[in-house]
Amino acid sequence: MNELNPTQSGPASGGADVSCGARLRLAREAAGLTREDVASRLKMPARIVQALENDDWSALGATIFVRGQLRSYARLLKLDLDVDACLDRAEVAPVAPPELVSYSHTPRYRRVMEQATKRAVYIVMTLALAVPVWFYTGPHLGRKAPATQSLEVPDDIAVLSPAPAEPSQAPTVHRTPVVASMTPRAASVDDSDGDLVLKFTGESWVELFDAQGRSVEKGLLAAGEERRFEAGEVASVKLGNAAAVDVTADGESLDLAPFSRGTVARFKLSSDGSVVPASE
User: Roughly what angle, to the nearest 10 degrees, separates helices 63-77 and 20-30?
Assistant: First the structure.
């Protein structure tokens, strides 16, 4: 493993014409590392490392993502790099205004109504097919009604009805009226309500989808915001700045490291509530 000089400021750091990406590339070559080595250590694709060295900011997305990736790369090389100055000089693709809505949340009543409508359509279609088939092919149409046997009793048969026994005097039971308690039981409030809880400690992009691939929530959320979802409401999760989000799944804190690549974390919630990595 190559040792990096903690005090290096990067080759040709004093040159005003050397771009930030070029300084990263020269520092990497001076440390004897390949792009694949850097990608492995930073847990990001090699194409992102190449885009950083080529100053190809448009391939990396929003400014918040570019800033985090530049800082991670410079920290690995122990390079004194002014990331903000790099971004000021570079042309970073802005996030399209239509996508920068706070979030697009589908109301719960609307989802319930859609599910009820689908079930009603299914029931109507089933009845429309089953009733005619039953009516035209039912064997009951060709059967004759069975003869009803007379239940009249012949006159010559005397029916002796036993005299009703005189009821014995029942003991008097004194009942004590039951008075319902008027004190309602205090409702238990659990701070961990919801099978999926997202708490934002910093600004992060979020994309949530249900099992049918419909968007449940999508947008850029600020620090201090929180989202809670019930079981089955969310099936796929994508977090743009995973380090700024605390995730609780089924009442337990979730470590995002196994699901992260760079600063982005992706995972899915299976039908039994377990968390699995999301396919690319």
Answer: 30
Global pTM reads 0.33
Number of domains in the chain: 2
Structural domain of 82: 20-94
- Residues 227/193, Cβ–Cβ less than 8 Å: no
For 72, the enclosing helix (H) or strand (E) is helix 63-77
Query: Which of 56, 72, 94 is the C-terminal boundary of a domain?
Result: 94
Query: What proportion of the chain, given as a percentage, has pLDDT over 70?
Result: 66
- Say if 180 falls within a structural domain: no
pLDDT at 8 over 70: no
Relative orientation angle of helices 20-30 and 46-53, to the nearest 10 degrees: 120
Of the three residues 94, 113, 138, the one that is the final residue of a domain is 94
Instruction: Convert the pLDDT of each residue in 22-80 to its tens digit.
Output: 888 998 899 898 989 988 888 988 888 888 888 887 777 778 878 888 888 888 888 88
- Name the residue among 32, 83, 28, 94 with its Cα closest to residue 61: 94
Cα–Cα distances in angstroms (integers) from residue 123 to residues 109, 118, 119, 131, 187, in the given order: 21, 9, 6, 12, 38
